[in-house]
Amino acid sequence: SQTIHQWPATLVQPVGSPLSLECTVEGTSNPNLYWYRQAAGRGLQLLFYSVGIGQISSEVPQNLSASRPQDRQFILSSKKLLLSDSGFYLCAWSVPPNTGELFFGEGSRLTVL
Amino acid sequence: QKEVEQDPGPLSVPEGAIVSLNCTYSNSAFQYFMWYRQYSRKGPELLMYTYSSGNKEDGRFTAQVDKSSKYISLFIRDSQPSDSATYLCAMRKNYGQNFVFGPGTRLSVLP
Fold first, then answer.
1. Which of A20, A113, A29 shows the shortest CA–CA distance to A72?
2. What angle do CA B83, B87, B88 make, to 5 degrees?
3. Which residues of chain A make contact with B43, given a CB cutoff of 8 A?
4. Tens-place pLDDT, residues A38-66
5. Quick check: A107 and B42 CB within 8 A?
6. Strands of chain A, DSSP E
7. What CA–CA distances, in Å, run from A18 to A36, A65, A82, A86, B21?
8. What is the pLDDT of residue A41?
9. Residue B52 half-sphere exposure, CB side, CA atoms within 13 Å?
10. CA distance A58 to A77
11. Do A17 and A105 form a contact (C-beta atoms < 8 A)?
12. For B43, which of A57, A59, A105 is closest by C-beta distance?
């Protein structure tokens, strides 16, 4: 069966520090991968998605970047965090050709101080 | 107008009640409709998935899609305290990668 791992689960970072969140998927090949951010009282906001190694599409211009160095690995990064980057970050995957089912990891809660 | 609207609640019901959760949307291009359950500080869990209009039942859960009204519903029968969570609706078009989510409805089932 497919599983998705996301880490770290929680982190507190000072403003201006770098960020790296990592996500890996097991049990499937060539998944579509996604990074979402969830703010309190608001829907999930799509940040990045990837349909293959090295292929990244950005939905929202911001302080963050994403990379996909391997088929089942997706990384969310920032060189300098802002206070507004605080939130709950979720990695997700789906099976091409994307029938509509999206599966999430456990999330990473980021607090920027 | 937001693409997907959902009453944030909170919604409190007694154990055993039938729960009705709803979302409205504005974009007629949406074809896939999902319901997710999210416990506090956890990732969303896919509950129900439907394509286009119609009903789908899975155990105590029934999802309904009315594309003519741009309205989707999730019914929970015989609700349990373990159903207490935030329920998110989501939808996407036939093309593109963006799944659009509602803000979620917080449900409390009281024993």
1. A29
2. 160
3. 6, 90, 104-107
4. 987 677 899 999 999 999 998 886 789 99
5. yes
6. 3-7, 10-13, 19-26, 32-38, 44-52, 55-58, 65-70, 73-78, 87-94, 103-104, 108-112
7. 19, 11, 10, 13, 40
8. 67
9. 0
10. 13
11. no
12. A105
What does residue A95 show for φ and ψ, rounded to 5 degrees? -100, 120
Give the best residue of A6, A44, A93, A98 to mutate against chain B (max B CB count within 10 A).
A44
Q: How many Cα atoms within 13 Å fall on the side-chain side of residue B36?
A: 28
Q: Which residue is associated with the tokens 């439907």?
A: B50
Using an 8 Å CB-CB cutoff, list chain B residues near A46. 97-99
| Single-letter code of the amino acid located at A111 | T
Question: Which residue in chain B is spatially nearest to A33 when comparing CA positions?
Answer: B97
Instruction: Kindly state the tokens that stand for B84.
Output: 């207490």
- A and B: number of Cβ contacts within 8 A: 60
**pLDDT digit string, tens, across residues B67-85:** 999 999 999 999 999 999 9
Q: Which of A49, A51, A104 comes nearest B44 by C-beta?
A: A104
Distance CA B9, CA B107 (A): 7
Residues in chain A closer than 8 A to B97 (CB atoms): 32, 34, 46, 49, 51, 57, 98
